[in-house]
Amino acid sequence: MVRPLSGDLRERAVAAVVGGESCRSVAARFGVAVSSVVKWSQRYRATGSVRPSKMGGYRKRVLEPHRDFIVERLQQTPHLSLHGLKDELAARGVTVSHNTVWQFLRREGLRFKKKLLALEQARADIARKRHRWKGWQGRLDPARLVFIDESVLQSSGRSSI
């Protein structure tokens, strides 16, 4: 971050302007921007000082007031995605970016990792097929299995075997 110019330089520039010199000529003489001399002069007329004001700032955290809602939603629906959470916040009138939600969750230490098991595995038809597949796996002869590298097929322009 750039530091403010020295108080001595500011005082000499403002003194020259108060003495009747134009802001443009003062800026040229001291090698600073005209806008700086204008702002210093305005600050001097308003406050009587040429001291620089505080640099930088503090942004309030937009999602802080909604922390309880976010925690509750993550407990109710652990498979909720960032985009889904963002959409739910938007429905409550809080418009934020995907990144804002992500940073808030990281900063608060809130985690909602996806489970290793897909949600579809809980469905009865999928569970039945998985059970059947596990039974068939034992009867497969590994010597008869063939590995097909699909990346080679796609790069050569062929879409299927």
Describe the structure in your own words.
The chain has 161 residues and is mostly helical. Among the domains are: 7-47; 64-108. The protein contains eight helices and no strands.
What are the key terms here?
single chain, mainly alpha, 8 helices, 161 residues
Helices and strands in order:
Elements: H1 7-18, H2 23-30, H3 34-47, H4 67-76, H5 82-91, H6 98-108, H7 124-137, H8 150-155
Helix pairs in contact: 1-2, 1-3, 2-3
Strand-residue proportion: under 5%
Terminal CA distance: 59 Å
Helix content: 40-55%
Mean pLDDT: 85
Which segments are poorly predicted (pLDDT under 50) over 5 or more consecutive residues? none
N-to-C SSE string, H for helix and E for strand:
HHHHHHHH
Largest sheet: none
Quaternary: single chain
Overall body shape: elongated
Question: Strand tally, please?
Answer: 0
The whole-angstrom Rg is 33 Å
Strand pairing plus helix content: what structural class?
mainly alpha
So how many helices? 8
Can you describe this structure in just a few lines?
53% of the residues lie in helices and 0% in strands. It is mainly α and 161 residues long.
